[in-house]
Write a structure and sequence with these properties.
The chain is an alpha+beta fold. It has 8 helices and 5 strands.
Length: 225
């Protein structure tokens, strides 16, 4: 399983694609696993970012409806939660009473570490009781959770870089338009660059519009004229 996880490509792929591959590897590599999913928390909202097998998705969505359950509590609290038998489990009575209809009898929920907190949980389900009682299941679950956290961190970093690039491009575009407008004013009013910029600034304040919009209006007016 570790060899398969090490081969997961993070770059130039969506987070959903990466996490879907990881849930497949987890379902095949974690002892006792039949179905797996990844719950991510965004504020008060929890959602299944990827899953392998319908059992996991059905069990996750039951928890979202109730607002609590092992995967949600593991994600929120940053604690590992194992259920050995849904038929005798006492911690989430309404959830365990309903989840048995999905075929789930045992589960393992491993929190996803991220920058000193938890952003969700890796969820592993089985139709057999005590499927995850072995140390091997726990260790494998922890290893998968680490890879999921890395994938999420990589996606977040990529998104931030993209946002920074967009902001930089917008700033450069604005600067170019302002310089063009200054050039127009310098030619029309026979003023220097500082005076041209002051004209733009005063117009921006007077009309309560962005400096770039004032500049764009001047440039476009020159083109149309």
């Amino acid at each position: 399983m570790l060899r398969e996880l090490s081969k997961v490509v993070l770059v130039d792929r969506s987070l959903t694609e990466v996490l879907t591959e990881i849930t497949r590897i987890a379902a095949q590599g974690i002892p006792g696993a039949e179905s797996t999913s990844i719950t991510l928390l965004r504020g008060d909202k929890a959602f299944t970012a990827a899953h392998f097998g319908e059992m996991a998705l059905a069990a996750d969505e039951l928890q979202y409806e109730k607002g609590y359950g092992p995967c949600m509590d593991a994600g929120r609290g940053g604690v590992l939660l194992r259920v050995d038998d849904m038929r005798t489990e006492q911690r989430w009575p309404e959830y365990v009473a309903n989840v048995q209809a999905t075929g789930v009898l045992s589960s393992l929920s491993v929190p996803l570490p991220y920058q000193g907190s938890s952003i969700g949980a890796l969820n592993v389900y089985s139709s057999e009781p005590a499927a995850f009682a072995s140390p091997e299941s726990l260790e494998a679950g922890l290893q998968v959770a680490e890879v999921v956290a890395v994938a999420v961190a990589n996606a977040d970093a990529h998104a931030q870089l993209g946002e920074q690039a967009r902001n930089m491009r917008l700033a450069m575009d604005s600067r170019a338009v302002i310089e063009q407008a200054k050039g127009v004013l310098m030619a029309q009013r026979h003023v220097d660059a500082d005076q041209a910029f002051e004209i733009l600034r005063e117009a921006s304040q007077r009309y309560n519009r962005k400096l770039r919009d004032i500049a764009l209006g001047i440039v476009e007016g020159t083109r149309n004229g």
